[in-house]
Design brief:
Shape: elongated
Number of helices: 3
Helix content: over 70%
Largest sheet: none
Radius of gyration: 22 Å
Distance between the termini: 64 Å
Structural class: mainly alpha
Number of strands: 0
Order of helices and strands: HHH
Strand content: under 5%
Length: 69
Amino acid sequence: MDPALPADAMRLFGTKTKKDTVNTALREAVQRLKRAEALERLVNMAEAGEFDEAIAAYEARKTAQRGQA
């Protein structure tokens, strides 16, 4: 392991021990990957047109509200 990495990570994460630093780094990595997976699922849903009906309904409501103002 690069000896500079733990010190840099401890400074950036604000952790005091190597154990806390490793746990924090792993938690951050897992959360980032889960967000990337969720984003990929949303992109796939959008490409499949799964939001088209909801977008059309939103646009219709918005248009109707403008007509009432």
